[in-house]
Structure formats: structure tokens, C-alpha cells
């Protein structure tokens, strides 16, 4: 069991974490926007989760059909 607030690799206190936006794969069928949480001292990945703010992006073909030519 991990002590809360302590990095499991380097043992430093985790007062801050690095949050990065990354892309994950959903069973190999497309990309999903995710967030990676890592230690600011040793850069070990502490966790990955789906980005709750992300929206479904239209596919390229659908986006081109929605364009209007002026």
C-alpha cells in the first residue's frame, strides 16, 4: 500500500504533480484524450485517466463535409 503524498519510487513528498495531456487508444480503434500524472522529482508516471473535459471530435471526413465553400 502506498502512503498518500509520497512518491513510490523516490520517496519525496508529492505536494505537486506534473499533468500532461496525452492520447490513449481505445481497443485500437481511435484515440482518446487522457491526462498523465507524474512525479515532478523523478518523472515516474503515477497514473493515467481519461480527460473529463474532452469532447468527441468529428472524424476528418465528417468535418470536411460540414465545411461551406465561399
Order of helices and strands: EEEH
Counting DSSP E segments of at least 2 residues, the number of strands comes to 3
Strand arrangement in the largest pleated sheet: 1-2-3
Strand content: 25-35%
Largest sheet: 3 strands, antiparallel
Unreliable stretches: none
Class per helix and strand makeup: mainly beta
Number of domains: 1
Overall average pLDDT: 82
Distance between the termini: 61 Å
Number of helices: 1
Whole-number radius of gyration?
18 Å
Helicity level: under 10%
Indicate the overall shape: elongated
Structural descriptors:
single chain; 70 residues; mainly beta; three-stranded antiparallel β-sheet; 1 helix; 9% helix
Task: Provide a concise account of the structure shown.
By secondary structure, the chain is mainly beta. 9% of the residues lie in helices and 34% in strands.
Give the arrangement of secondary structure elements:
Elements: E1 17-25, E2 31-39, E3 45-50, H1 60-65
Antiparallel strand pairs: 1-2, 2-3
What does this entry look like structurally?
The chain has one helix at residues 60-65; strands at residues 17-25, 31-39, 45-50. It is mainly beta and 70 residues long. It has one domain (17-65). The radius of gyration is 18 Å and the shape is elongated. The mean pLDDT is 82.
Amino acid at each position: 500500500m502506498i502512503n498518500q503524498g509520497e512518491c513510490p519510487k523516490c520517496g519525496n513528498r508529492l505536494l505537486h504533480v506534473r499533468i500532461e495531456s496525452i492520447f490513449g487508444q481505445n481497443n485500437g480503434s481511435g484515440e482518446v484524450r487522457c491526462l498523465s500524472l507524474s512525479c515532478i522529482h523523478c518523472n515516474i508516471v503515477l497514473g493515467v485517466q481519461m480527460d473529463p473535459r474532452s469532447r468527441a471530435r468529428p472524424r476528418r471526413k465528417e468535418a470536411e463535409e460540414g465545411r461551406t465553400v465561399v
